[in-house]
Amino acid sequence: MRKTMRQGLAVSILALVLALTLSLPGFCQTVPAESLPELDCLIEPETTIDLASAVDGVIESLYVDKGDAVAAGQPIARLQSLVEEAQLRLAQARAERSDHIRYHQANSQFNERRKERFKKLPKNEVISALDLDDAENQAVLARLELRKAQTDKYIAEFELAYAQAQLNLRTIRSPMDGVVVQRYLQPGESTENKAIIKLARIDPLKVEAYAPASLVGKVAKGMEAELSPEVPSPGLGKATVSVVDPIVDAASGSFGIRLSLPNPEGRPLGGLKCKVRFLPTPAASGVHPEVPAVPGGR
After folding, report:
1. Of 28, 36, 31, nearest to 275 (Cα)?
2. Interval 62-78: pLDDT, tens
3. Side by side, which strands form the sheet with 75-79?
4. Which one of 60, 208, 225, 246 counts the least CB within 10 Å of its CB?
5. How far is residue 200's CA from residue 47's CA, in Å, rounded to a whole number?
6. Residues in contact with 44: Cβ distance below 8 Å, sequence separation at least 6, in sequence order
C-alpha cells in the first residue's frame, strides 16, 4: 500500500515539474538543427511514365528525341491515319448535308396547305371523305419524313464527332510537362503492346531519404531542408517534407521520408545521391506534450 502511494506521489511530482517547465517563456520554441543529423538521400523525378498509344497502329512521325523538354498537350508522335481521315471526310459530308431537310420541309408545308384547302371546300362540292382522309394522311407522312431527316442529320453530327475523336487518337500527346528519358520506337514500327517513349516530370523533383527510428516524431510534414547533391548545384532551393512514413521498418530500424524540391529551371538532378539537412522549425505556439495522468487523481 505504501509502495503504491510512493509511486503515485513520484508521478505527481514529475507531472508538476513538467507542467511548470513547459509554462516557462521561450521553452521548446524551436527544434535545434543540430539535433537532426544529416541523412543520405536520392533525388529522383517526381513522376516517370512509359507513354503508349491508346490505339494500335504504325508510327508515321515521331517529333521528340531523348533529352527533349515537352509540355503538357504537346504532340509526341503520329500514327498512320489515311483510313481515319477518309472516314472523317465522309462523316463531314453527311453532317453538312441539308438539302434533304429542305426537301422534306417543302413537302410537309405543301401537304399541310393541301389538307387545309380540302377542309375549307363546301360540303356540297364534289369531294369525298376518302380524298380528305388521304390529304390528312399525306400531311402526317410528310411531317414524319421531315422529322426522320432531322434525326438523320443529328446522328450524322454525332458520327462526325466520333470520327474526329478516332482521328485525334492517332496523335499521341504528352500528358504532362517533363523531359524525354528514352525513345523506344522509330517511325515505321508498330505500337501494339509497346511504349513509345519514357517521360519524366522534373519540376518538382522527389527526394527520398531514410531516417533511424530515433528520429520518429522529430520530422514532420512541412519542415524545410537543405540538400547537398553529389554534383554541386549552386542556387538550389529548399526542399519541403511532403511524406513521413508512419511505419518503421523492423528489419532496418528506419522509416521513409519524402521531400519535394522545386526545380523551375529544369536542372538535371534526377538520379543523384545527396545529403539532406533539416532546418530548425518553430514549434506550434502553446502546444506542449501531454502531461501523464496522475494515478488516483481527479
Report:
1. 36
2. 999 999 999 999 999 99
3. 59-62, 75-79, 171-173
4. 246
5. 6
6. 205, 206, 207, 208, 270, 271
Assigned C-alpha cell, 275: 545529403
For 171-206, how does the pLDDT look when each residue is reduced to its tens digit (9 = 90+)? 999 999 999 999 999 999 999 999 999 999 999 999
- Residues facing 206 on adjacent strands: 44, 260
Rounded to 10 degrees, the C-alpha dihedral 165/166/170/171 comes to 0
Residues 6+ apart with CB under 8 A from 80: 57, 58, 59, 60, 170
Taking the complete model, does pTM exceed 0.90, yes or no?
no
Please tell me the distance from the alpha carbon of residue 230 to that of residue 269, in angstroms, as a whole number: 10
Residue type, 33: A
Gap between the Cα atoms of 167 and 146, Å rounded: 32
Residue listed under C-alpha cell 401537304? 111
> What are φ and ψ of residue 61, in 5° steps?
-140, 145
Query: Using CB atoms within 10 A of its CB, is residue 297 exposed (0-12), middle (13-18) or buried (19+)?
Result: exposed
Q: What is the dihedral of CA 110, 111, 117, 121, to 10 degrees?
A: 150
Helix (H) or strand (E) holding 275: strand 273-278
